Amino acid sequence: QQQLVESGGGSVQPGGSLRLSCAASGFTVDSYAIRWFRQAPGQAREAISCISADGNTYYADSVKGRFTISRDNIKNTVSLQMNSLRPEDPAVYYCKGRKGNYCPDLYSGSWGQGTQVTVSS
User: Which stretches of the chain drop beneath a pLDDT of 50?
Assistant: First the structure.
């Protein structure tokens, strides 16, 4: 069974950092495009970053320069390093995978539990 499990969320002060992890089972992340999404209360779910199977990375303008996506083929995980967190970053963060180089969209596949990120002074 293919599954992705998010972890690493927590509460930080503005300007702080968190590292989220998306752990895969049932498939290898190096053959999949993995995308991070987030959803704040009352807001639509949005795509924020993706790493394709061939290693290309993509970022939404809202996180570019602050967030970094990376892949660990040995641990079979994809991480999202989040620096300089802002008051507008709190949300539940989710990851989703799609085989190949095309990043998964909002509408296909299933969602995991996500991991909560809170930014508060």
Answer: none
Q: Classify 93 as helix, strand or coil.
A: strand
Q: Give the pLDDT confidence score for residue 111 in this predicted structure.
A: 87
Q: Where are the beta strands (DSSP E) in 1-121?
A: 3-7, 10-12, 18-25, 32-39, 46-51, 57-59, 67-72, 77-82, 91-99, 115-119
Predicted local confidence at residue 63, as pLDDT: 98
State the pairing for strand pair 46-51/32-39.
Answer: antiparallel
Tokens 């008051």, located at residue:
87
DSSP 31: G
Q: What is the pLDDT of residues 56-88, one digit of tens each?
A: 999 999 999 999 999 999 999 999 999 999 999
Q: Give the CA angle between residues 100, 114, 43 to the nearest 5°.
A: 100
Give the phi and the psi of residue 30 in degrees, each rounded to 5: -75, -5
